[in-house]
Amino acid sequence: MSSLQNKIDFAVVLRVKHANPNGDPLNGNRPRTDYNGNGEISDVCLKRKLRDRLMEAGQKIFVQSDDRKNDDAKSLRDRAEKALGGKFGSADTARLANETWFDVRAFGQLFALPKKSKSKGAEEEGDTGISIPIRGPVTVQSAFSLKPVDVTSTQITKSVSGEGDGTKRGSDTMGMKHRVDDAVYVFYGSMNPQLAVRTGFSDEDAEAIKAVLPKLFENDASSARPEGSMEVLKVLWWKQPKPGKYSSAKVHASLHMNEDGSGSYTLGALDGLTPEEIPGF
Q1: Residue 243, preceding bond cis, omega within 30 degrees?
Q2: Quick check: is 25 in a domain?
Q3: Has residue 81 been placed in a domain?
Q4: If pLDDT is split at 50, 70 and 90, which confidence band does 171 have?
């Protein structure tokens, strides 16, 4: 299978309504914001959702979340050893990992793991462990809201009976829930054909990501993100013959979002380059 033949850039316009799209654990799990008060969804959060949707579509994923994993691996090392067998830690690790897992050949992966000691609590002399960096061709930026967001905080009580036979009601515990009432966010991404040669990322892989972007928040509901509160409005997909006539920065800058809160936009003129506009799922 040949590697990616086109330079691809994409943008995703999404709406958040009465949901916490990405809580900040260092700030009481309030929705993330930047210093200007604009809402933020981290690139790590977005790639987690991409991995989940790709796994649901049948792709093999290396970095799986505990509540969605489809194997019995207890750690990333355990998963790598079971999948690659005796080849894990060898010169063929990078090649085999790219062939085995979609997210490794797409986003890259750093296999930085200490070697297992021969005896418990003892280290092997000269043990340097395993450090194998894989640089992926697909990059995803953090999402930011078009305007500063209003965060609503609600005080809640929860009662849990954690002791005895369950007949005695536990004491109430006070807590807080936070949400963004209504905001439109945008994030951008790119696929580099030169880096795709190194990992074997193909046109078919690019199409797989394109297929899941419109339904990025399907099967992702939780108490913080009720069903229907997170919605992809539009995916814009620019494809150029490699190496590309326009830089990713210029392509992304051609998308001008209207700040009326509707998610509407206009496109700047790029000679010979028009994006495919895909509605959300």
Answers
A1: yes
A2: yes
A3: no
A4: low
How many domains does the structure of the chain reveal? 1
Whole-model pTM: value is 0.89
232: Cβ–Cβ under 8 A, 6 or more apart, which residues? 12, 13, 14, 213, 214, 215, 216, 217, 280, 281
Kindly report, residue by residue over 254-265, the tens digit of the pLDDT: 999 998 889 999
For residue 32, give the DSSP letter.
Answer: P
Provide the 10 A C-beta neighbour count for residue 236. Answer: 23
The answer for residues whose C-beta is within 8 angstroms of residue 5's C-beta and 6 or more apart is 193, 203, 241, 242
Burial 238-277 (b: 16+ CB within 10 A, else e): bbbeeebebebeebbebbebeeeeebebeeeebeebebee
Please give the pLDDT value at position 159.
66
- Residue 29 structural domain: 6-53+138-162+173-279
Token representation of residue 149: 């967001």
In a domain, 167, yes or no: no
127: confidence class by pLDDT, cuts 50, 70, 90: low
Token pair belonging to 65: 């979340």
The phi, psi pair for 89, rounded to 5°, reads 95, -5
Burial of residue 193 (number of CB atoms within 10 Å: 0-12, 13-18, 19+): buried
